[in-house]
# Entry
Amino acid sequence: MSYEYKLVFDDNSTAQHVIDIVKASSACVRSGDGDLYLKDHSLNSSGAYDTRLIYGDDESLWLQVNFQSAELYALLKTALNGRNFRCLEDGDEDEEVGLNEAFRV
# Structure
């Protein structure tokens, strides 16, 4: 079962910044059509990816989390360091959660 979140940013450079940081990491196992597929190699999960990051637009990204992962949480937290963002469960404005909740850590 996967969980989906919309990351909404205050400025139009954050989404591309996060994509660039995450794409350069060893966790990125595949990219294409604006999607990044991430794998926490320590989990030894059977899926092709553990988390998918989807480019929404200049001010948002979608995050699909398939498995709990402290490593991928740390990667996203580092990429977002110092940037203002909101994490909305299923993209719902009334369902804001912390990034740690999205990764179940």
